[in-house]
Amino acid sequence: MAEPLTQRPTPIRPRARTRDRLGAVLRRLAGAVFVLWAVATLTFFAVRLIPGDPAQAILGGPGSQTSPEALAAVRAEYGLDQPIWVQYLQQLGRLATGDLGRSYGLNQDVGPLVLAQLGGTLVLAVTSLAVAWVLALTLATWSTGRGRLARRIGSGLEIVAAALPHFWLATVLIVLFSVWLGVLPPISTSDARGLVLPVLTLAVPLAGFLGQVMRESLLTALESPFVLSARARGESERGVFWRHALRHAALPAISLSGWAFGSLISGAVVVETIFARPGLGRTLLTAVTVRDVPVVVGVVMVVAVAYILMTIATDVASRIADPRPRTEAGR
Amino acid sequence: MSELEIQAAVPRRTNVAGRRRPSLAEVLAALLALFLLTAAIAPRLLAPGDPLAIDPLSAFQAPSVAHWFGTDESGRDIYTRVIDGARDSLVIGVTATLIGLGLGVVLGTIAGTLGAAVDFTVNRFLEVLFAFPGLLLALLFILVFGPGPATAIVAVGLSTAPGYARIIRAQLIRVRSSAFVEAATVQGLSGRRILTRHVLPNTLSPLLVLGTLGIGQAIVWAAALSYLGLGAQPPAAEWGAMLSAGRTYITSAWWMSFYPGLFIVLTAVCATYIGRAIERRMRHA
Amino acid sequence: MPRPGIVRSTPRPLTLALAAGVTALGLALTGCTTASPDAGDDTPKSGGTLTYASGDAEPTCLDPHVGGNFPQALVSSQYLESLVSLDDEGTVIPWLADSWTVSDDGLAWEFTLRDGVTFTDGTPLDAAAVQANVAHLQDPETGSSTGYLALAKVAGTEAVSDSVVRFTLSEPDSALLESLSQPWLAIQSATALERTQDENCAAPVGTGPFKVDSWVKQNAITMVRNDDYTSPPGDAGHAGPAYLDEIVWRFIPDSASRYAALQAGEVDMIDNVQPDTIAQAESSDTIVHLDAPRPGASNRIELNSGKAPFDDIAVREAFIRSANIVDGVESLFQGTADRSTSALSSVEPLGVSEPDLFDYDPDAADALLDGAGWTQRDSDGYRVKDGVRLSVVFPVSTNQSIPAEQSLYEQIQATAKETGFEVKLAKLDLSSWYAELGANAYDAVSAPYTKVGPDVLRILFHSDGITPAPSGYFANHAQVNDPEIDALLTEAGQISDPERRAALYADAQERVLDGFYILPLMDQQNHFLYATSLEGARVLPAVSTPTFYDAWLNR
Amino acid sequence: MIDTRSAGPGPIRAAPALRLRNLSVRFGAAGTSPVVHGVSLEVAAGECLAIVGESGSGKSVTARSLLGLAGAGAVVTADELTLAGDSVLGLSESAWRRRRGRDVGLVLQDALASLDPLRPVAREIGDSLRLHSDLDGTARARRVLETLESVGLPQPELYAGRRSGELSGGQRQRALIAAALALDPPLLVADEPTTALDVTVQAQVLDLLEEVRGRGTAILLISHDLAVVSRIADRIAVMHDGRIVETGTTDEVLRNPRHAETRRMLAAVPVDKPRGSRLAPGARSVGGSASAAVEASFITVADRTPAPDASALADPASAARAATVVLEAIGLHKDFTVPHGANHRAVDDVSFRLHRGRTLGIVGESGSGKTTTARLALALTVPDAGEVRLLGEAWTTLPESERRARRALIGAVYQDVLSSFDPRLSVRDILGHAVAGPDGGRDAGQGRRGRRVATAQRASRVNQLLDEVGLAGSLLDRRPVDLSGGQRQRVGIARALASRPSILICDEPVSALDVSVQAQVLDLLDELQRELSLSLLFISHDLGVVQHVSDEVAVMHEGRIVETGTAASVFTAPTHPYTRALLAAVPRLG
Predict the structure, then answer these.
(1) Cα end-to-end span (Å), chain B
(2) Which listed residue, of A260, A268, C457, D533, carries a Cα 20 to 30 Å from C167's Cα?
(3) B64 and C CB contact within 8 Å
(4) Is the pTM of this model over 0.90?
(5) Is the bond into C253 cis (omega within 30 degrees of 0)?
(6) What is the predicted pLDDT for the residue at A145?
(7) Helix axes A166-173, B239-247, angle to 10 degrees
(8) CB C431 within 8 A of CB A62
(9) Minimal CA separation from A46 to chain B, in Å
(10) Inter-chain contact A10–D338, Cβ cutoff 8 Å?
(11) What is the reported pLDDT for B234?
């Protein structure tokens, strides 16, 4: 047949490849720095739009009783009396050195505070991501190659799972496993038991999304010629699934994991509140409610960094799972 | 050729799906959609009572013949409220999705049409927005503009916009580099005419599907904001707000949060099935 | 009047058969983590960790001098102690101060401190320590709100001797002792106060039965027993160190999770309990209910008399008459709260109730509104005068009003609508809520105010309270501006004769109630649930905060 | 190499590698018509049997039934099915699995997709060993290398770790064959094993299969291409509509076809058929698949009068000298930047002239730059150096806005015609837009009346176009996706003709079509050229097609034109070694 309109890449010399890789890393790094800068700038100016006086917020919010002198002192201390662009540059300068500023309300520096909360959320998000993968894969394994009814049920389960609101699911799980069955704690505990319900709450809807994506590509993979080839070599259905189809099915789901991580962070806001888990989500929600601007900015910055790292990890993972060279047109 | 032959001979999923009768799930989804729309347009037709009428003395009644879904803490009939809430919830879902899609279309279109520099800029901008996970963006927005139903709608719309923008941009680029656009160039059509006659219609046709799929998620997200106390105001029978109110009584009156939650889930599921059905029909019509 | 104290729950008729069934099933399946109260013997046993779950917001500072809110009071009652305390009758009793005297003009108070008390950092309790605390509270840098106000009349302190400290007042303060009994004025180690505020906020040092060990933000505060404890209040059950090894103080904002955690045996005690769970717990034999209404003001809706439509007393009365409170309280609080008709909490001995003024009477309300010129009704059924709808803007703080209260407001909204009021409820977070109040953009509001003693009336109803602080905060939300009330409250705040004081406060309360400035609802609810395995827990009567000095775990 | 076996079936050993009697395959419930009907076959060891048929003839389903892989929902029945002497009728799935790969191997077309693109080929080849032998890892690795070597990949270590995407077309097809041969099964089923390959690579793969057969392996070769199979098959079975309509030795079938279908297929092969001769019976006949019963769209135009200047073409040589140059490429260069920054020269100093009323064929293998050349001629990309001149005037050097008005002069016909149609549009819309021209016919008339006249004119022109390409008006409201491949290509040609161009650039217009449909489309193009005195730039990888349609031919290789001349001279007396290699590789009948 004729050549395709897009040119296939010709083999390249190894040295060029190394140089390209270095360039790619640098580009990536520049992109990450840009995103962080933009996130910081956007948040800084968005926060300026928030009604209310930051100095007042520092002194305990509108409910407190503060003197004009105290307000002036606080303004000077936090540099709030400076022109806005000076404040902006100061903020950027601080951020560049990793200083996230000081919380208005928590009598603490934001950096250590947010870092202390990061762990809990990361554990929650990463575990949920892993569990979501396992759930999605299990359902996919069970329902493919088992007839149309199983496939419909599997796909229906995924759609329902994807539609479950976190807060509702959390409630149902608590009533079911903590109140009725009494087997799992409804709040975070020092051991892993306390992680089960929050993780399920986050993982089940995500598994629904991942499963839908995986199913599409799984069915495509199962109908592709290389699977026929494998069957013709005597490969079993299980072998076809694990050795061939799964990896293809996983590819889009892997690329989706960056987005999934973001949605898990969103979900963490709700889940951490319900299950009384320490974490960024709860910190953020509290900070939003009391207008603790530095904490909000701090959480946003940390989440942005985590998101960027996660995106990079996702890219690396897809490159490992699919070592084929990328063409511009894609495949 | 052999490959084509197999396609013709073996009933393949995709080929058959387009022509086959709607599945049971799709029929159910269509019926449910009809029900929800009726509820939204003429709630009194399905539930003649007053959703706001309180009756403190018959509070917390479990589901019964008189109160299909039970009553809430103020003795209001939950079935009536759920039906009445369909309008608010659907309006929230649809409006938020329209805002998200609208922004997405604008961003995606200018990225995809106004040249590499604009594309680069918009892309970076989208990347930045993506670094704010959905609810974070919504929370930040609410922080700036204050809580309330309108803010919640815009916040949800805003937080879904980057996703839509990316899809639309990709679709635009895909369509623009497609063979039929090239064929139109060969026919001598001007760039603008190609854009309006071929590129935009083909780019925007998946919007219906995207929107339908998005409505469900928008309702879920708006409900999450209501749950966090940042959405609809009392005594509105918005599902998220009802669910949030009912959660307090979850151990003693499960029906208060179960039914609103069920309707959120059903609506989202229904939207997904319908969206997929539309998608399949568009692909194979 | 009911006193705060332990109320053993007795089985009640099941209003919610299913709910009870669920609970019973749940308890059966939890495998009864808690022993039945009759199983163990009644001799207190030392040891064990108590886990307390608070539904309040996590304090930003564990030193209640800083700011000064109820969550701080709850937790600081475990490690800080005040100069005086109250007994169940509301009588002032000695604590860190053994005795006290007041000069005839009421301007000089001398407190003699208890002997042999040391702070947990080893610093002795002496007059200088008390001086340092007053200075700390009055220092603007500290940012004290509640304590600062309470000491408004204290002009200075001096150490008469090591163990005697004198307070000099600018004018007589009949509420000084009650003020000093509050946890927000608790005495901390002077050495510790010299640390930076960050350090002091993280681990304040007091004389209490426990001391702060660690604080993992958003997770838990861990407090360990103070083995050298020597200063229990006069009404304590035993002497010497506390029984418990450790208290883990957790924050579980979600009420359903909190109750589920108690049921699952993950925590031993919870606060901010929802009425429906109380009703459930009443029928449980593994959970005990503790009802301890907060002192100070009652839970009431304040009507903004400073602007239309509530600048007209007839409209205020009509609104009050149009609201069906009794049925609402009955259904929402399921017998856990009684309707109040007083400006003060039922635990305040000087409270005055006027049940007749607050009856639900829609006919009277209609007549009043007709008389006030609100004769037209628009298409939505709301009354209209001069083209203006009879609207009542009612911002609700989701942080300060529990869901049952919010539901009650919705019911008020519904019943008032029949009379022709349009009540516009707006659920707001705390900052937005304060902003609405500061902007005078409200017609009705419900704001809790906790302060020991009737002096709270001065804060809430004296016209000085209308003038906002620089932050925009003011306490007189009803905007009562009545010179006679001002005069009565000022005099009552200075007078030392108890009877005269009571009469003045009663007079003031009657004027407030007769003016229909407020719609009293019920006491400020303060319910706790705990496992039956927890013995000896009680609340300190001052502001109804729990104390675990006498508590032990029977398991 | 083994002795030639073209003279009929060789000596049959004790048990044939495959014996099949009365195979029927049906999809779906009882009562649905079977797609394979009463097929009986026998292949001896060391023998190659080819099943030839067009799309939908049932040949692939037959082949897959032999491995128990007819597909989901297939109901397979047969009186006898033995592999290497053992009956495999009614085997359980697990029993089938034990036989697949060991008793029978399968080779599919398009090795890029038939080898898992994510796994190294060594793993793919090793799979059969892992599944069917007790060999340990090292032994398996050694055997994999041996197998790779045996399929003509010397230094197998170089290839073992690569994935199919990292191999050239020929290498990966060899690897795919190696995967099927790892256990040396007595029977190899090869389903279109050379279809996606360039002609030289195809020849190599056929040589390899011949060698495999020589080792005693029985080969069942499935193909749509009689010319390909004639090269190695001992016997040929022609399938049509699920039945075997003719079987015989290769010679018998090619020289003395008995069935009409066989004759039709043979006639449709363009190789060595003189320019202008018909490949398909009838004129602009059916634009559907072989099975289609699209009689409704059948319009006979055979007796149409030839175009006035058709006689001028009677003597091609003199006409070439006299004719005007309509399209001229002068020293075209085009580079592409591939990912990672390297430059790839797609077109390198290409010059050619297309004369009025003539066909210039450009032939080359994939990657030779012929499609880029077509895009340059269409001014879809701008050359880095050189230019294309249209009717003696500037073309590629013009800005697009000035070029637009002259685009009506050039029409284009594409290989993947379906994707060249806006998927939302019906045939009526597609042709209507094309007829209206780039301005949408806006200035065709003023006012409503004028528009109505314009609309009516347009409709009649659309009908005329349909008529010209031999399509029925009933197809107007269908969308291209609902048409058969041949019908689609006819719509594509109609669209290209809408602006009454004088030049038609055809980029692989028949590559995606069955032989018989290809024949019809080629006939159609030929007729249209005569009637409308079109000049054709005809680009194809298929030498047979190019030879059949072209007056002049340019052979492209690695971006350059290596040889050019009249079709007759290039095909009969090639001067460049590459051309000679290409010609040698072309499969011919017999």
Answers:
(1) 25
(2) C457
(3) no
(4) no
(5) no
(6) 66
(7) 30
(8) yes
(9) 7
(10) yes
(11) 66
Measured torsion, CA atoms of residues D114, D116, D122, D126, in degrees rounded to the nearest 10: -80
Binary contact (C471, A66; C-beta < 8 A): yes
Angstrom distance (rounded) from CA D54 to CA D516: 8
Task: Give the per-residue pLDDT at C489.
Answer: 94
Q: How far apart are alpha carbons D104 and D219 in whole angstroms?
A: 10
Encoded amino acid at C149, one letter: L
pLDDT tens by residue, C144-154: 878 888 898 99
Q: Which of D80, D42, D1, D76 is nearest to D220 (CA)?
A: D42
Please compute, for residue D115, the number of CA atoms within 13 A of its CA located in the half-sphere on the CB side: 32
Which of B156, B149, B143 lies closest to B233 in space, CA to CA?
A: B149
Distance, in Å, from the CA atom of A68 to the CA atom of A82, rounded to the nearest integer, reads 17
| Six-digit token string for C319 | 């609104």
A202: Cα within 13 Å, side-chain hemisphere: 33
Name the percent of chain C lying above pLDDT 90.
57
**In one letter, which amino acid is B182?**
E
Contact at CB, C257 and A182, closer than 8 angstroms: no
pLDDT given for residue D338 in this prediction: 65
Mean pLDDT of D92-106: 88
The order of strands in the sheet holding C444-445 is C444-445, C299-303, C518-522
CB contact at 8 A, D514 and D275: no
Alpha helices (H) in chain B, listed in sequence order: 2-9, 13-19, 24-41, 43-46, 78-113, 115-130, 134-145, 149-176, 179-186, 191-194, 200-204, 207-227, 239-247, 254-284
Cβ atoms of A160 and B265 within 8 Å: the answer is yes
Which chain B residues contact residue D35 at CB under 8 A?
A: 9
Subunit contact D61:B185, Cβ cutoff 8 A: no
Dihedral over Cα of A8, A12, A18, A20: its sign: negative
Which tokens belong to D180?
A: 């099927």
Say yes or no: A32 contacts chain B, CB-CB below 8 A.
no
For C170, C319, C484, the CA distances from C314, given in Å and listed in that order, are 40, 9, 20
Pick from C161, C478, C520: nearest CA to C313: C478
Torsion-angle region of C453 (φ positive above 0: left; ψ -120 to 50: alpha; else: beta): left
Check A168 against B261: CB less than 8 A apart. yes
Q: How many Cβ atoms are within 10 Å of C141's Cβ, its own excluded?
A: 10
The span from the CA of D206 to the CA of D196, in Å, is 13
Are the C-beta atoms of residues C62 and C76 closer than 8 Å to each other?
yes
Domain with CATH 1.10.3720.10 in chain A: 111-323
Q: What is the largest CA-CA distance in chain D?
A: 86
Closest residue in C to B50 (Cα) is C414
Distance linking the first and last C-alpha atoms of chain A:
18
Angle at D352 between CA D351 and CA D355, to 5 degrees: 155
Question: Shortest CA distance to A47 belongs to which of A286, A219, A300?
Answer: A300
Q: Rounded distance, CA B33 to CA D315, Å?
A: 72
- Dist CA B279 CA A218 (whole Å): 19
What pLDDT score does C3 carry?
A: 32
* Closest approach of B208 to chain C, Cα-based (Å): 35
**Rounded distance between C-alpha atoms, residue C414 and residue C18, angstroms:** 28
Q: What is the pLDDT of residues A186-240, one digit of tens each?
A: 887 777 888 999 999 999 999 998 988 888 888 888 888 898 889 888 888 888 8
Q: Which of A150-159, B10-19, C202-211, D187-196 has the lowest mean pLDDT?
A: B10-19
A111-323: in CATH 1.10.3720.10: yes
Which chains reach chain A with 3 or more Cβ–Cβ distances below 8 angstroms? B, C, D
Q: How many CB pairs under 8 A join A and B?
A: 132
pLDDT band at A67 (very low <50, low <70, confident <90, very high): low
Question: Please, what is the average pLDDT of chain D?
Answer: 83
Global ipTM: 0.78
